Amino acid sequence: MISKSIAERMNKGSWIRKMFEEGGRLKALYGAENVFDFSLGNPDLEPPAEVLDAIRELAVDPPPGLHGYMSNAGYLSTRQAVAELVSRRSGLDVPASAVCMTVGAGGALNVALKAILDPGDEVMILAPYFFEYTSYTGNHNGVPVIVSCDRETLLPDLDVIRHAITPRTKALILNSPNNPSGVIYPAEILVQLDALLKEIPQTIYVLSDEPYNELVFDNQTVPDTMAHISNAIICTSWSKSLSLAGDRIGYLAISPRCEDFDRLIDAVPFCNRTLGFVNAPAFFQRVVEKAIDARVDIKKYEERRDLLLGVLRDAGFEVNCPAGGIYLFPRSPIEDDVAFARACARHNVTLVPGTGFGFPGYVRLCFATSQATILGSARAFRIIGHEFGLN
Ligand SMILES: Cc1ncc(COP(=O)(O)O)c(C=O)c1O
User: Fold this and answer.
1) pLDDT of 273
2) Which of 130, 225, 359 to mutate to test the pocket of ligand 1 (most atoms within 8 A of CB)?
3) Tens of pLDDT along 185-197?
4) pLDDT in tens, 267-324
5) Whose alpha carbon is nearest atom 15 of ligand 1?
6) Distances (CA, A) of 174 to 156, 193, 230, 234, 383
7) CATH level 3 topology of 65-290
8) Average model confidence (pLDDT) for the chain?
9) Whether residue 245 has its Cβ less than 6 Å from ligand 1
């Protein structure tokens, strides 16, 4: 018999998975070319040449012991390369000892939460949010506290955050550029958040989940969380920036300004080990070390973003242009975003209701998909728009 709490969580399910499966069902019925699937955030660009070269070099000429265990925090040379990257971005002197290589951003978040939570501690999650945060928090006996961003700007509302803080608040998860909204949180908000957290008697760690950090458009930049927030722990990966989602490679970096820094740098590799990750994939630690400055061709994502924006706007949808990430987050034309997503599926278009991100009234579409899918969906979106009185 499986655990009651897991059974409960499985029942709630993930809207992304549900819609992805619905896409699969429709493809089997109508043929893949007649279904327009925008549900899953799976990067569809190949990794950049630097990554493919590094893979080849390592396979042909592997350093001794490449496939064995190493320190639970990862190879020292890889951690040094990451520490240099994080130091450059933050302007702080981040030592290699503050870096732990992880099994993706998901692994990093679980390790961070394991290291800091006592049972019943609260983790503040800003909606719209990546739906797994509640499970990750639950994994370590924490209590997720969902706090809504502003309904118009989709930016964190400092007053709402202030009111949601309790003596049990232990962490806040920040995700910018945001999945699903594509919004980048400006530096002023990070500065104000840091000031607010400093007023609170207990330490509140900010876990900065930033896998879309390198996927930003129109020459915009992402203000660095570690530069602006003292108790910052970066939890991130190369899943999106190098299209290595399946290879499960990421890192956790602890700000040298963090409260209890010395204990944290010991606790994190301990949790990496005892959660059963043991260490991040050895081969891909070496790969990212060699290709640390590479990233996928974001121009291609930018083109697709613009193409899908055009398709939706032509059909009459109200949609903001995302600054980063791989998603559009338009308003649902009716209040019930789940009903709207179901109506879209009737026209062979799959997208994810905002409800799946704790933010009803919106829907998410992933534009990391082929031009053919985007262009092919135009007719269906015009018909859907017409059905809902948008054109
Ligand atoms: C906001 C956010 N955080 C974390 C993850 C998990 O990333 P990873 O594949 O590195 O575990 C994702 C994946 O889609 C994501 O969108």
Assistant:
1) 98
2) 130
3) 999 999 999 999 9
4) 999 999 999 999 999 999 999 999 999 999 999 999 999 999 999 999 999 999 999 9
5) 130
6) 9, 11, 14, 10, 37
7) Aspartate Aminotransferase; domain 2 (3.40.640)
8) 96
9) yes
For the Cβ of 41 lying below 6 angstroms from any atom of ligand 1, the answer is yes
Helix spans in 69-212 (H): 76-90, 104-116, 132-139, 158-164, 187-199
Binding site membership of 215 for ligand 1 (Cβ less than 6 Å): no
Indicate if 65-290 has the same CATH topology as 4-47+297-387: no
Q: How far is the CA of 139 from the centre of ligand 1 (A)?
A: 16
* Percent of the chain with pLDDT strictly greater than 90: 92
Closest atom of ligand 1 to CA, residue 250: 10
**Distance of CA 17 from the midpoint of ligand 1 (Å):** 14
Report how far residue 268's alpha carbon sits from residue 119's, in angstroms, rounded to the nearest whole number: 18
pLDDT in tens, 15-40: 888 888 888 899 899 988 899 999 98
Judge if the beta carbon of residue 179 lies within 6 A of ligand 1.
yes
Q: Which CATH superfamily is domain 4-47+297-387 in?
A: Aspartate Aminotransferase, domain 1 (3.90.1150.10)
| The pair of three-digit structure tokens given for residue 90, joined into one six-digit string | 């933050």
pLDDT of residue 116: 98
Q: How far is the CA of 251 from the centre of ligand 1 (A)?
A: 12
Across residues 247-260, what is the average pLDDT? Answer: 98
Instruction: Decide: 209 in ligand 1 pocket, CB within 6 A.
Output: yes
- How confident is the model at residue 20, as a pLDDT? 83
User: Between the CA of residue 178 and those of 18, 165, 185, 221, 261, what are the distances in Å?
Assistant: 21, 22, 8, 14, 27
Per domain, the residue ranges of the chain are 4-47+297-387, 65-290
